[in-house]
Amino acid sequence: MSNNAIAVMASGKGSNLRVILDAVAAGTCPVEVKLVISDKADAQALKIARAAGVPEVLHLNPKEYADHASFDADWAEAIEAAGCQWIVLAGYMRILSSSFVRRFRGRMINIHPSILPAFPGAKAVEAALSYGVKASGCTVHLVDEVLDGDTLESLHARIQLEEHRLYPATLARMVTTGFEIDGRRVIWRT
Ligand code: GRF
Fold first, then answer.
1. What is the pLDDT of residue 173?
2. In angstroms, what is the span from residue 157 Cα to ligand 1's centroid?
3. Residue of 11, 13, 16 to test ligand 1 pocket, by largest number of atoms within 8 Å of CB
4. pLDDT at position 51, please?
5. Alpha carbon of 11 to ligand 1 centroid (Å)
6. Strand pairing of 56-59 and 86-89?
7. Residues that are catalytic
8. How many angstroms separate the Cα of 90 from the Cα of each of 38, 109, 112?
9. What is the distance between the alpha carbons of residues 31 and 105, in angstroms, rounded to a whole number?
10. What is residue 94's predicted lDDT score, i.e. its pLDDT?
11. Which terminus of the chain has fewer Cβ atoms in its 10 Å neighbourhood, N or C?
């Protein structure tokens, strides 16, 4: 399994998939999109993937499965069979089972159309607008589960595991490649 092989999961129009594929073609995003998979037969994302020549493009229909767990298990098999190290959620609109999230822990990222933790959930943009925000944005985050029965202590302990990976890695990046400060923005040098 190569370290840059990704599976993209999408349910909708696929604009994020498109920019990823464009960036790969332009040589600015060093990933290999090996599999695009959708729960919707008519997702534009599937057409974009086929047109770009993604080696494997799959539709799995949730209605053909007895339950959520068996659907997610087939999905996971397809991702592993394709040799993908990473899962990139790009407008995937189904709730993932805990077992799926655990199986790909630390290897699955999502893009969400709000600045988390504000406005989580499927209707983030509507919620931000009706709240009357004056600024919004998007968040790329690792997908992890909050376990049933999590307490303040147990959740904080798991978040700290992530902090303990992230902080040294950030310090390393800070002293090797470094960054520029532009007003309130930090821009990593490449
Ligand atoms: C994006 O707004 C993303 O933030 C959210 O779903 C939407 C997907 O859009 N998770 P697209 O299908 O990539 O155009």
1. 81
2. 31
3. 16
4. 98
5. 9
6. unpaired
7. 112
8. 10, 9, 9
9. 19
10. 93
11. C
> What is the Cα–Cα distance from 115 to 110, expressed in whole angstroms?
13
- Domain chopping of the chain, boundaries: 5-112
Beta carbons within 8 Å of 189's beta carbon, 6+ residues apart: 177, 178, 179, 180
Structure tokens at 144: 């992890």
Handedness of CA 96, 100, 102, 105 (dihedral sign): negative
User: What does each of the 190 residues of the chain score in pLDDT, given as a tens digit?
Assistant: 678 899 999 999 999 999 899 988 999 888 899 999 999 999 999 999 999 999 999 999 999 999 989 999 999 999 999 999 989 999 999 999 989 999 998 889 888 899 899 999 888 988 988 898 888 888 888 888 877 777 888 877 877 787 777 778 877 788 788 889 888 777 899 8
CATH superfamily assigned to domain 5-112: Formyl transferase, N-terminal domain (3.40.50.170)
C-alpha of residue 16 to centroid of ligand 1, in Å: 6
